Amino acid sequence: RVHSMESRGKDYPSPRAAASKKLRCMPLGWRFRDADLHQSFRAKSPQMCVAPAKVYSLFWISMSCWSLLAHLPYPIGASFFLSFFPLVLGLALGISCFLPSTKRHMELLLTIAVLLLVLWNGALFYVNMDQWFRWSTSYFSPKYFRTWQLKAIHLYIKHSVTYLNACKHVGLQLPQFLAMLYLSADHLITVLCIMSAAIVMPLSPNVITSAAVYSLIGSAVLALFAFFLSCYFKRILMLQHLAENELEANFESSRKADSILNHSLKNRMADAAGEVELFVDECSEPHQGLLECIASLHRGMQLCQHRQAYIDIVAGKYKPRVTFSSLTDFGNALASGRELVKREFSSCWAAFDFIACEMILENALSNAFKHGCPRSPDVSFTISANTSEGSSPAQLLFVVRNRASAARPQLTDEYIQRLVTRIPESGDRRMPSTSDHVGLSHCFMIADACGIALSLKQDGDVVTFTAVVNAEIQGPPKDTPVSSQRAASRLPTGLCFHVLDDSPVARRLVVSHLLKFASPASVKVFGETDLEVQEFVSKSIGVADVVIMDEHLDYSSGNYLGSDLLKQFVNKGFRGLLCTRSANCGPADEEKYRQRGAHCVLMKEMSGLEMVATLARAYHELKASDDLVLHEI
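Structure for Response regulatory domain-containing protein, as requested:
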């Protein structure tokens, strides 16, 4: 309560007030207190000036053409030739708006154009005062009027011409004032406008002093108003730039935090799965539940692996990523850890979007258990390949069935449409939660992006979710092992393994997998202290046949990267197999590891059989390339 009362007594600044404190008012305008921030804002000025420069040039081209046409009925004078100046200047400025070499200097070019037209406007006022007066008085001949009448007429004409010319002068200054909103030299333009009027108006021929003074005051007031408006407009632009900068910084921080959280989560799940797996190996009692727990943890790590795909889906930027995969392995991975009354998977291999189908079917299976009959959902999962027509591509049919819950509403087309579009029905409390809406809507979103046909129907108490995918279907590739056990048997026995990891569980798990499936001569582990990391390269060269290292090695004294150690191995001429075992194994991560020298990349969610099978393939590929080099020599 005391803390609450103290909080109420404090006046916390609003976000807008906090942002305003990052600006300071200088004699020459607003500036950011942070020099780097101000420099980034100034770097955007040329691009911001491109659109105003196009409008500015178009205005002066149109105005000049109209002015030239308006002069045709009258005798050609100096004002006629002066009208060509803004026409030429507008054309030059307009062309520069489309040239890459001049667009980066657009603020400077626009400033020069504005300054020149301010001076031109002053010169035009001077010329028009003489020319308009002569044109107006030419209609009043001394033959028909007395001297005092002519003087009165001339005085009236001078007043009229002065005010009309002053209005035109101010009107032609308005484009300069509008362009000044985007220019940093607004103070210079304001001073030049006032000085130009102060010099030209009193010194022009046939001008009435009193009218000139009033016109000068009006022009000065308008210029000062435009200057303060420009300062306020620039402040708004700077606050917008500050907001965009902070939003970008927050986004980058959130992205990094998300990456760290994703990496940490996968490491914790890997350690948990490893602890359970080691316990299961040592336990002789029934442990089916623990095996399902391991499968669930591996599935969670696999979902974390698709983090970038989720980001692309939410952003609407997901693109299909077709890979050649076994339908049996794909189905078993999704069914692992789930009680299914029926599971049938085609033995074919097909080229389809593995990630998209996995995310869609993961959501479908989860919803089948979550929203199906609480007592007996009777979930079945089948994958079949329709090759009866013999056409290519054929169709893959993924089907998930379950018994519906009597407490939930009937799945009609209208109801499903509301779920997909996330429009809740008023008063319907049996609607799924928001996260379910998002999952189903995103399933249909990614299906549209990848050309996958989805359907969700209910017939009686049976709910059927179907996904139809067009894919190229083949038998197993010749170089692909029929089973992981056969792949593991191809790894030569008697190899020496060196393993580096900062996690004790990960070290024990890798050793267990190697001893169980690889028949090694020896397995030596490193990584208990940072000193072992520093000695890892020197103690492995000339001794180890296979090196397996984690990418992120964190210790209280400092952090190390496995990719840096890879580079050291390559520089010192290591001839064995270099492997990176990491929780981050996205396409960009894998490319980075291979560029540093890794021959294969092991995901932490891999089972022991999968890990050794991957090592076997990479080992034989490395030896085959070495034999080819020796043969060429």
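Confidence is low (pLDDT under 50) at residues 1-10, 423-438, 479-489, 629-633.
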